[in-house]
Amino acid sequence: MPLKLSLKPGERFVVNGAVLQNGDRRAVLLLQNKASILREKDIIQPEDANTPARRIYFPIMMMYLDPAEANKFYDEFVLRLNEFMNAIRSTDVLKECVSLSREVMSADYYKALTRCRKLLTYEQGLLGNVHSGVPERGEEN
Fold it and tell me: Which of 54, 108, 129, 134 matches a 20 to 30 Å C-alpha distance to 68?
């Protein structure tokens, strides 16, 4: 079954490592075979891997986009996942981490990226709670 990709005008995406950009109109692409594809919104740059969950996401993304070089990114993934798991106390999130690790070990990188988005959401919830509890500069209790 083909993958249907609906693109906004100007939207960029990566297919098997090649960066492509849609023209000035909406477009629909049908991918007829297996390919590594990510939309621009799902791609993070190295400098944007600035939180624990993003540091897990980045090497998975790189393994997905360049499976031939996956070994270069695997050790970074393991290190970052271990750091994350040592800091987390939620059993549900820890279970997600174990499943994520299994997916990466079986080279199911797209599924791992999807699961890692749950970690990003969880982390954002924690960081949002931390930020909201810190008074703004000049704000008094």
Answer: 54
